[in-house]
Amino acid sequence: MDASTSTPQLLRRTNLRAVLEVLRTVPSATGTDLISATGLTRATVIAVCDDLIARGWARERESPRIGGQKGRPARRFEFNSGAGHVLGLDVGIATVRVLVSNLSGAVVGGAEARFPRHGGAPEQRRRVLTAAVDDALADAGTTSAAVLCVGMGIAAQVTGEGAVAPGQEVAPMFELGLQKEFGEGRGWPLLVENDAKLAALAERWRGVGAGEENLAVILAGERLGSGIIESGRLLHGGSGGTGAMGALELVAGVGNEDGIAKLARLWGSAALKDGHDGAIRALVGPSTNRASARLVFEAAAAGDPVAVEILDRIARRMARVLALVSSFFDPKLIVIGGAVAASATALLPVMTDELARYVSEPPRVAVSDMGKMLVPTGAVRLALDYVEAHMLELVPEVRRPA
């Protein structure tokens, strides 16, 4: 293609993107608003808006008449957030969670399902997952035809290109043939990402780290993993290993990737086996020596000295993890997320005090308030980023053949 044909096409696409960028960030805009925001001429703005309406990405709103206004009110345009949907999946060892979002990021449906005991075979897991996706679409009142992209988070190291890094024990749990199932079978682009990295995207988008340019999020439930955002950019490294916690076995006072929930459960159960008969025993009952993380936190809140000591040990251990992340990546904020995030608030005073011993200018430490929606929300953000980057190549539902 020569310059005489490519330049007008490139200019047209540039203008389309410029107007779309504005429409996605405001409830609606007049031609005058768009002229001011983009610097384009009125004729170009109106032509671009008509083009976007024809493509299905924008629509015209009826403008009310003001007072005794004569003539036709100024045309008002808005982004068509219902032109399609994206899916955000959090695929764990035991469960899958699915969110359905419109193109403005509003969640309109969802579903959750459990995999077979001990994970199940790949075919079983795939059936459970696809059924959960279909349930979520039904909950949203939409169909497969409306889906423009799927984002998926997994508890495994993923490269910047979206491939599961080789040599991981848990990787077979997530190799379910979904690229074929979704890509070839349903025509959906599928983007795969590490769950902790998606947690970082979610926190920067809608969590306590909203808008923070230098942020670390640590998933701290059963295992530790972190997602790092530096200067507004999610870091991956050469093989997706940025933020991986395998090297904690080299850190004195830590020693492995066990997370807060796992430590509370293990140490609480050990206390029961050693004959502890305080609040942990009262909550667990006389017939078992297995304590859940939740009950250990409840026992500590009730003043059980053994439970309080367990949480103190966990907080001091976590402070060393925070210090490591702080030293390597220098975030302004570290957010603790995952299954025990709400309970982890009790650990904050000791964690922050200890962190100040190790780091001269420690970051702020906070606890996520997004609960189990943290990772699937990040997966939605990943899918929306793809749609926004490829919008002019995608075909919205309203223009797809029946």
Number of helical stretches of at least 4 residues: 12
**Poorly predicted residue ranges:** 1-5
Strand order of the largest sheet: 6-5-4-7-8
Radius of gyration using CA atoms only: 25 Å
Key descriptive features of the protein:
41% helix, five-stranded mixed beta sheet, 17% strand, disordered N terminus, single chain, 402 residues
Topology:
Blueprint: H1 3-23, E1 29-30, H2 31-38, H3 42-55, E2 58-61, E3 76-79, E4 85-91, E5 95-102, E6 107-114, H4 122-140, E7 147-154, H5 178-186, E8 190-194, H6 195-206, E9 215-219, E10 225-230, E11 233-234, H7 260-273, H8 279-284, H9 293-301, H10 305-329, E12 333-337, H11 348-358, E13 364-367, H12 374-390
Parallel strand pairs: 4-7, 7-8, 9-12, 12-13
Antiparallel strand pairs: 1-3, 2-3, 4-5, 5-6, 9-10, 10-11
Helix pairs in contact: 1-3, 6-12, 7-9, 7-10, 9-10, 10-11
